[in-house]
Specification:
heterodimer, A: mainly alpha, MetI-like fold, 13 helices, globular, B: about 575 residues, alpha+beta, nine-stranded mixed β-sheet, 19 helices, about 20% strand
């Protein structure tokens, strides 16, 4: 098992290195000049030139690349080109908001999605099943940001139950900040629920037709034990990989949700960095996103190994 | 068994990540204030009953000195159209979200009257009065007497201290240094000297009229006065997210991607602000700002320049929409270096093909208004009014038959093709798209490629567009004319490449003559003459100006009428209140 883990981690290194390179190049391919973006169109020419020099943008690309790589390897995210603040400081401030939202959405998607999928599979072709299928189809078709706007309109503007904008004071009043979490979590989590429900239902349907399930029933086990211990156990593998995929993609989806709810977060920071052509911030955020995906995939793989002994012992 | 152990490790790992993530943000919020509290408490021992109240609250009671039982502090929450701040160093503040914050924190030697940026309404700010001017050896010397007892905000360990000539000179020198300011070009040929603690002398190599000189020392861009000791203590970089000035509000904290919190400056020289603080929230999405206002979480929001939106918000009942200047002027620049636009007859034909009213309808009055010269007559001295232009026959009112005829006479009976790029921003895109449709009527096919805003700015400076639409506010006629029409400013090839997109070089002498003219009336005449040349040669077609749109809850009282504000927001001063 330990070797399996180490193998997976070593494999992640070249992926991260490739990501660093692509990120570096992509950021510089976007047209637009960070110095002009930072100083505005009214700034004088001398000031723009001086800023370019200070930003290190006049250095040749390979030099900039080496600087970037060594900084990244040292774990130094650099300073914002725009306001001079260390990127790490900003990231540490906004990251908890994004993690909080992603985590809550995944939890919601899982604890709603899996049981719903199992239930609709068991009650196949009943009214419950039809309603469940229609709802999950609707959930898959609606974009998260649109759902977000609907939720804001109903629960914040009309009913005034929950806040419409902001992320609350996570550091000092974590309890109160949960109120700010509800609507964004619903808008992201419900869509994931829809997807998880569909997959859980279809894999459960397959498994329920297997011989060993019939055998289990024939042994006289209760339906509950058959479902949970025998059927769900082996249906879980594809579901786990879907949850892993969703976790990675929710971090990306949270960009739009963060903008709509105006929650501080990595996504909102990303948009700001793009608009201001803040190369260092942009690079760091994209690297963090990439690292996220790599880590989530790693965790998913490890969960596989945990759930399925065949994977664990294959190497 | 092993498996469970592994799971436990994974779970605790996740929990650890969550936990340290939760704990870190405290490091960001900047804590200060300790010094002020002490000082203020020392002054007023009379109010004894309020001792148990929370610290923040104590200050309010002490300074108002009225024995009102303490309630919630009165905070104005403004939703600004941005994802985050750029820089709160006023000499680097260029965007609306930054200008609006520094406007509350800093003062200039002179200032534009709150709510009305007209030149003749300017007032002394940190200066006691308007400056005295004398000529010494052909150089112009302006002498400012400073107001006494003006206090710089405290910052961290640095206590509040009195602003003197030393700070003013330091600040202006910083504004003139290209490494430390975006506006250095405005201060070339100027030297600054502290004569004594309350007297500042500014010497100009080239004399300027007050219309051109005052804006440089007013509360706009480089004219904002920063506090020397604070800048030196914090360093230039840190100052960008921890501004320290003399204004009615002082910096309290900054939460990245979220907000800047300001609190009232109890020692403000015009009196303690009626508000206890201001929160500038960064909300880039208009539907979110709107929801925030309607849900009562925001008091003021930056709106969008769309009359349909304005009308909808007005119907909300408890919301007021303000449309005010300054108007950012949209001008169509024809690139005279690129055929067939090098032919003046062709340019005139294009001008006759354009219909100002059609462009106006894109945004709707009063958000936009037509203009007839590159300098907007409504806001600045030196602009041409509709009547003046019509009298000269230079209004170029739409006449597409005439336009077609002129094109045919110039050798293009079937029109020609053009290709331009536009920003994705609504203000630009709508204009280009409408222009495309209008030019098609006379057979000119314009292909429009949409790029993002920052890309457009860098591309048009590389001379890619045969026609450039540019929307900008500049503080006076000289800046408009110099940066858009002086040959030095020609893009790519000029001596100081800037924003002369039309490659025009025929009014250099008029611009320079006007700049050096100290007689206000003659100066205005020269500016008008220069713009008449521009219209006669049709290098630029002035289209419209687009005003600022902000919505507020009805209980917000800015404390002044709104005509025009240079900082592009409604203006929040010590007089602003919430009548809840």
């Amino acid at each position: 098992m330990i070797r399996y883990i180490i193998n997976r981690i070593i494999l992640a290194i070249p992926i991260l290195l490739a990501v660093f390179t692509v990120v570096f190049l992509v950021v510089r391919v976007i047209p637009g000049d960070p110095a002009v973006a930072a100083l505005g169109d009214y700034a004088s020419k001398e000031a723009v030139e001086a800023l370019r020099e200070r930003m290190g943008l006049n250095a040749p690309l390979p030099v900039q690349y080496i600087r970037f790589l060594t900084d990244m390897l040292r774990g130094d995210l650099g300073e914002s080109l725009i306001n001079g603040k260390p990127i790490a400081e900003q990231v540490w401030y906004v990251l908890p908001f994004t993690l909080q939202l992603t985590f809550a959405s995944v939890v919601l998607g899982t604890i709603l999605g899996v049981p719903l999928g199992v239930w609709t599979a068991v009650k196949r072709n009943s009214l419950i099943d039809y309603i469940g299928r229609i709802l999950s189809l609707a959930g898959l078709s609606i974009p998260a940001f649109y759902l977000a706007i609907l939720l804001i309109f109903v629960f914040a503007v009309k009913l005034n139950w929950l806040p419409a904008v902001g992320g609350g004071d996570l550091a000092n009043k974590p309890g109160e900040s949960l109120r700010f979490l509800i609507l964004p979590t619903l808008s992201l989590g419900l869509i994931m629920t829809a997807s998880v429900t569909r997959l859980a239902r279809s894999t459960m349907l397959n498994v329920l037709n297997e011989d060993y399930v019939r055998t289990a029933r024939a042994k006289g086990l209760t339906e509950w034990v058959v479902l949970i211990q025998h059927a769900l156990r082996s249906a879980l593998l594809p579901i786990v990989s879907l949850i892993g995929l969703w976790t990675a993609s929710l971090i990306g989806d949270s960009v739009l949700t963060e903008i709509v709810f105006s929650r501080p977060g990595l996504g909102k920071m990303l948009v700001g960095a793009i608009l201001q052509r803040d190369y260092t911030a942009l690079q760091s955020i994209m690297v963090i996103y990439a690292a996220f995906v790599v880590v989530v995939n790693l965790l998913t793989d490890l969960t596989y190994g945990f759930l399925d002994p065949r994977i664990r012992h294959s190497r | 068994m092993k498996r469970w152990l592994l799971l436990a490790v994974l779970v605790s790992l996740l929990a650890a990540v969550g936990a340290c993530a939760g704990a870190t943000p405290e490091t960001v919020t900047v804590v200060e204030t300790v010094v002020v509290t002490k000082e203020v408490q020392g002054e007023t021992v009379t109010v004894v009953e309020t001792v148990e109240v929370v610290k923040e609250v104590e200050k309010e009671v002490v300074v108002t000195a009225t024995p009102v039982p303490m309630e919630e502090p009165v905070i104005l929450r403004l939703g600004q159209n941005a994802a985050d701040l750029g820089s709160l160093d006023p000499h680097f503040a260029t965007s609306t979200q930054d200008r609006s914050v520094v406007d509350m924190i800093f003062n200039g030697l002179l200032r534009y009257k709150p709510g009305d940026g007209a030149f003749d309404k300017m007032e002394p700010d940190l200066a006691e009065d308007f400056p005295e001017m004398e000529m010494v050896d052909g150089k112009q010397v302006w002498t400012f007497k400073l107001r006494q007892g003006v206090k710089c905000h405290p910052a961290g360990k640095l206590e509040a201290y009195e602003l003197t000539a030393e700070d003013v000179v330091y600040s202006l020198e910083k504004a003139a240094n290209p490494d430390r300011s975006a506006y250095a070009g405005e201060y070339t040929g100027m030297t600054f000297e502290a004569v004594d603690d309350y007297t500042v002398k500014i010497t100009l190599e080239q004399p300027l009229s007050p219309v051109l000189f005052y804006p440089k020392v007013a509360n706009y861009s480089g004219g904002f006065i920063v506090c020397k000791k604070a800048v030196e203590a914090l360093g230039d970089d840190k100052f960008k997210t921890h501004p320290v000035g003399t204004g009615p509000f002082m910096f309290e904290s900054y939460s990245p991607q979220e907000k800047v919190v300001l609190k009232a400056n109890p020692d403000y020289f015009r009196g303690k602000p009626k508000l206890d603080g201001v929160e500038m929230r960064y909300i880039p999405d208009i539907s979110s700002r709107e929801a925030g206002l309607l849900a009562g979480e925001l008091d003021v929001i930056n709106g969008i320049p769309d009359i349909a939106w304005v009308d909808r918000m007005k119907n909300e009942g408890n919301v007021t929409v303000d449309v005010f200047g300054v108007g950012e002027v949209a001008t169509v620049h024809f690139n005279t270096s690129k055929p067939p636009l090098d032919n003046p007859e062709v340019r005139k034909a294009l001008a006759y093909a354009l219909d100002r009213d059609e462009f106006l309808a894109l945004f709707g009055e009063p958000i936009a208004e037509n203009v007839y010269s590159p300098v907007p007559a409504k806001f600045l001295a030196g602009g041409l009014t509709k009547e003046e232009v019509e009298e000269l026959g230079l209004a170029y009112d739409v006449d597409r038959e005439k336009a077609k005829q002129m094109l045919a006479d110039a050798g293009y009976p079937d029109g020609f093709d053009l290709e331009v790029i536009t920003s994705e921003m609504t203000g630009y895109r709508r204009i280009y798209e409408s222009m495309q449709a209008q030019l098609a009527e006379i057979g000119v096919n314009m292909k429009v490629n949409v790029v993002d805003h920052s890309t457009m700015h860098s591309q048009i400076r590389k001379d890619v567009n045969p026609i450039v639409v540019y929307i900008a506010w500049r503080p006076n006629a000289d800046v408009y004319l110099t940066r858009f029409f002086h040959s030095d400013s020609i893009v790519v090839t000029g001596a100081k490449p800037d924003t002369n997109f039309s490659h025009y070089d025929k009014i250099d002498d008029l611009i320079e003559q006007a700049r050096g003219e100290t007689d206000a009336e003659k100066q205005v005449e020269l500016w008008k003459e220069a713009q008449i040349k521009i219209l006669e040669d049709m290098v630029a077609y002035p289209l419209q100006f687009q005003q600022q749109v902000y919505a507020r809850a009805n209980y917000v009282d800015y404390g002044h009428d709104l005509v025009s504000v240079f900082a592009l927001y409604p203006g929040i001063t010590e007089q602003t209140t919430l009548n809840k």
